[in-house]
Specification:
The chain has seven helices and no strands. It is mostly helical.
Length: about 260
Amino acid sequence: MSIKVSLQATETPTASGKVAVYAEVNTHRKTAVTVGILFIIGTVAGVLSGLITLPILSAPDYLREVAANESQIVAGALLILVMGFPLAMIPVMMFPIFKKYNEPLALGAVVFRGVLEAVTYIVIALCYLSLIAVGQELVRAGAADALYFQALGDLLKQAVYWTEHILALVFTIGALMLYWLFYKTKLIPGWLALWGFMGAILYFAAAVANMLDPQHLPLSLGVKWGYLMIPLAIQEMFFALWLIVKGFNRAAIFSV
């Protein structure tokens, strides 16, 4: 009888241990897939927002175009939020894992890639929505007041321009933290994490160079300094698919 009890006592922790390991692996798998999906949702929403709004905002008489296409600007603003909030959730999802390795750095990623990035997206969306009111007032205004509303519209466009640059800086600082954590924890292949880290450095350089450029060109892929943004843009989509298909390195999960 005592032998039987003893055997049961030995087997129970082993069985419960296996269940705990399986549960943790399953949780991390879900986290990896969720993070990958959030990357894709954010990127697709951002591209759609640009396709909808850029032709209107780049028109010579853009305020009248904004007033005439209010629904498109509203949709573009909503898509900016759809882009911003999923992307801001990525460091939040990763925080419970990363804090085991380096809690201050994990918290920094939440602040930069999460909170501050979300705030800048909200500012851009508010500027877009404010342009609708300015455009409508311009249409109703006489020739004497038109210049006032035109100046106000230009101010809002400049606010969007510079906020996008601040967003790029905040985004890349957060990305540097995230990819360094991914590299050190070995949750993903080292080459993939380093690709993201180096891409973030180039992205940061593109934003700074564009801010100092007297031409004040749009901070966009393929536009002068925007070519420096391409490596990170490609990496993040590849990274998202990797997380969905492969997930995290199982051996690294239990060593973090």
